Amino acid sequence: MMNYPPSLQNLIEMFCRFPGIGPKTAQRLVFFLLSRPPEEAEQMARAMVRARKKIRYCSICAGFTENDPCNLCTDARRDQSIICVVQHPHDVMVVEKTGHYRGRYHVLHGALSPLDGIGPEELRIPLLKERVASGEVKEVIVATNPNVEGDATAVFIARNLKPLGVKVTRIAFGLPVGGDLEYADVQTMGRSLAGRVEI
Predict the structure, then answer these.
(1) What does the pLDDT average to over 161-177?
(2) How far apart are CA 65 and CA 47, in angstroms?
(3) How far apart are CA 80 and CA 60, in angstroms?
(4) Are 130 and 164 in contact (CB under 8 A)?
(5) pLDDT confidence of 188, banded at 50, 70, 90?
(6) In which element (H, E) is residue 181 found?
(7) What is the pLDDT of residues 57-81, one digit of tens each?
(8) Is 108 within 8 Å of 143 (Cβ atoms)?
(9) What domains can be seen in the chain, in order of their start residue?
């Protein structure tokens, strides 16, 4: 078996740290990078360093930003009475791309997972409670992932916020547009029926 030069092996191992990147994909990425002109690799390296230095968390919503507070939190055209709670900063862009939401956000940076030592304090839930306690917020939309941790987080948030007199809703889950019923799993079909709306 051929051993790669140490610098090449180190780069492959670095790429393996990315989520969803295994050794084979890491090798392909490294070989692609090495096939490009040196200045292109340097541009990529500079872009990573620049982003790492400039990007921080918004002090209000905890999303990614270069300016604090972020543009979404300072936009006066957005509805301050609604907060959409998401697990990760990139989830904000997923919601934004729909074009259907014009409220504010709150990023948890994860979901409750007692076995992993992740509790409310690690998830910025106390900050969410403070925002709601201010009295401006009328509805909190919980848009956590549809899994055990996401559901547990949604229930925890609802139990902690409802006593403050705020409406707490959960995004609906169901069939994808263009999907076929025969390919739907039982849980997705059940959620689709439960989240039905009048037409």
Answers:
(1) 88
(2) 15
(3) 12
(4) no
(5) confident
(6) none
(7) 999 999 999 999 999 999 999 999 9
(8) no
(9) 78-170 (3.40.1360.10)
pLDDT in tens, 13-54: 999 999 999 999 999 999 999 999 999 999 999 999 999 999
Q: What phi and psi values does residue 90 have, to the nearest 5 degrees?
A: -70, -15
CB 16, CB 26: distance < 8 Å: yes
**Terminal Cα-to-Cα distance of the chain (whole angstroms):** 64
Rounded Cα gap, residues 62 and 177, in angstroms: 31
Amino acid letter at 56? Answer: R
The position carrying tokens 């509790």 is 119
The DSSP bridge partners found for residue 57 are: 64
- Does the pTM surpass 0.85? The reply is no
Helices assigned H by DSSP within 55-147: 71-74, 89-98, 125-133
| Tokens representing residue 1 in the block | 């078996």
The residue count for the chain: 199
